[in-house]
Design a protein that fits this description.
4-stranded antiparallel sheet
Length: 100
């Protein structure tokens, strides 16, 4: 039978085991951050403290495509900037009166 409980991954290694209720209490009292990694001893898999309390961390949530909300949505194409204005041409002095 698998061991119920969790171990907390720290920079010094795994600490524990702790019961779920103890970890939840430590999370709500800000002793354990929501991004802490926990080893589920029953499954042998790691999860975040946020996942244990039923929340999903923003950093781990994959982005949702717009089509999921509305299949007719398309991303607008970025407009190209207007072409740069040509530098002014030199004045035409062919009809200018020349002295000399």
């Amino acid at each position: 039978m698998p061991i119920p409980g969790y171990k907390i991954l720290t920079k010094d290694g795994l600490k524990g085991p702790y019961q779920k209720s103890s970890i939840l209490k430590a999370i709500t009292s800000a002793v354990i951050p929501l991004n802490a990694r926990l080893l589920d001893l029953a499954t042998g898999k790691y999860l975040s403290a946020a996942e244990l309390v039923g929340e999903q961390s923003e950093a781990r949530r994959p982005p949702r495509p717009l089509e999921q909300y509305d299949p007719d949505v398309t991303m607008p194409m970025r407009e190209d900037p207007p072409p740069a204005k040509a530098p002014p041409s030199p004045p035409d002095d062919s009809n200018e009166l020349k002295l000399g």
